Amino acid sequence: MSYEPLALKYRPRRFADLVGQETVATTLRNAVKSGRLANAFLFCGSRGTGKTSTARIFAKALQCPNSSEGEPCAECDICKAIASGDDIDVIEIDGASNRGIDEIRQIRDNAGYAPARARFKLYIIDEVHMLTIQAFNALLKTLEEPPSHVKFLFATTEASAVPETITSRCQRFDFMRIPAPAIVARLQYICTQENLSAEPAALQMLAAKCEGGLRDALSLLEQSVAYGGESITADGVARALGLSGREICAAIVQPLIAGDAGGLLHGLDRALERGRDAEELLDDLVEILRAAMVASATEADQAVGAQAELATALLQAWPLQRLMLAMRLLLNARRESRLAGMARIQLELALLKVLHSSALLSLDEMRSLLGNAPPSGAPAGAVPARTFERRVPPAPIAPPAPPRAQIPAPAPVAAPTPVAAPAAMVQAGALTLEALQAGWPKFLSLLGDQKKRLAGHLEGSEVVSLQQGTLLIRLRSDFARKNLEEKAQREVLGESFVNVFGTVLALRFETGAAQQSNNATQQAPDRDPGAMKLISAFDGTVVHKSENGPQAKE
Ligand SMILES: [Zn+2]
């Protein structure tokens, strides 16, 4: 028996089979029924949401001689030929591989001929945004005055990349990501058809992982079957999907809850040593946070999913807003690491920010991270004070918990962590020279855990002065100074500085003895006190944007 992939075998054949796209299906069916049809249709949405399947079903509905109530019969020769992609009147073009003007010219030249056996000549162009500009221009000519027997069905994952001259001539349909419960139901149906037994938690994990794309969910299901055979368990799925072991995530999440920076970085090291890659870890943590967030938003007592235990621990420790903030920080890190690489550093920075999120970030930063900007003119501090209250008091620093251990029960407030101490001073609005000097050794040791090269150049450095938003740092050697004044190094340092001290300062360096440094300080140019302006003037690069200057008070 030849094996047919599930995604093909269970490809929807009629509108009624489409999962999660009821609005689109209804609108298209009505269009077929009424006969009021646009010349071109544009299907937009992320991968696996059913755009191409819908285009074929729509094509069938238009061509099938037995269409009823806008539904194709899915049985006749025409329907079958369209389903397999070789109908003579329905021409499918993959925009990604046929990007050029020649293919489109061919369309233009052939469009004039009448269809061979059905009502319309239909052109389905997948990934239409990939066409070249010349191809779009050629296409436009046909789109402007199409013969009445020609219709275009375009599909794209990037609607914004399709020229407006094209989109404005199309009836547009947006395909939503398919909601997880709909995907779970579909997976359950397919498992029943295929005589597979599946734990509900396992299917939930698959649905969570595929991010609203049914096709991905089906290939993940197949992967799980290949891995674990015909009974699909949550554990098997976790392994098949390469979700990290419970211990690995626990070693990160537990110190995160406990507010233990040392334990957190140690746990991260262990995870990376065991061969987890930083991007995978980011994905796992996002998954756990998401489970906690969903449970929190729906006021559930327990989280569900691959790492339900850890997600539930987070749920009990943090209010929804803090979970959302943490999620935003991790998603930012994921985006940054995809754009700029350095996944490990992005992950470390994000986790440290999450750890100190309530202490480090200004209210404005929290607001903007949560996408919750106050109306203009609203007074600072408009976020209700209870927003960042914990449900339970923060735990003191705990030694890294052994693997598989339960999350330690939260204990009453104890002394803040050393890093939190300078942060707390910053939050109070007074980043003084003294505070910086007191926090500097801790900053350096924290830096040394993450960025050894940078920390090496800063070894033995001292904070000399803080004036007009410029921090003067004395270094031990000209070599170190030369290195730190390179743009790349300075940016990394600037970002680390912001992460620990929570504010933006221009950084200047000097070498030599203390007396000289004082002179240098006095010679520091008297510039506009705005920290951002200083930063720009200093190196022409904005490292980090903050609405609060160093002296800003909350
Ligand atoms: Zn038919």
Please tell me what the overall shape is.
Answer: elongated
Helix content: 40-55%
How many beta-strand runs? Answer: 10
User: Per CATH, which architecture of the largest domain?
Assistant: 3-Layer(aba) Sandwich
The separation of the N and C termini measures 70 Å
Given the helix and strand composition, which structural class is it?
Answer: alpha/beta
Biggest sheet character:
5 strands, parallel
Describe the structure.
This protein has 554 residues and is α/β, with parallel strands linked by helices. It has four domains: 170 residues, Rossmann fold; 61 residues, Helicase, Ruva Protein, domain 3; 154 residues, Up-down Bundle (Zinc Finger, Delta Prime, domain 3); 119 residues, DnaA, N-terminal domain (GMP Synthetase, Chain A, domain 3, 2-Layer Sandwich). The strands form three sheets. The chain has a five-stranded parallel beta sheet, covered by helices on one side. Strands 8-9-10 form a three-stranded mixed beta sheet. The longest helix has 21 residues. Zinc ion binds next to helix 4.
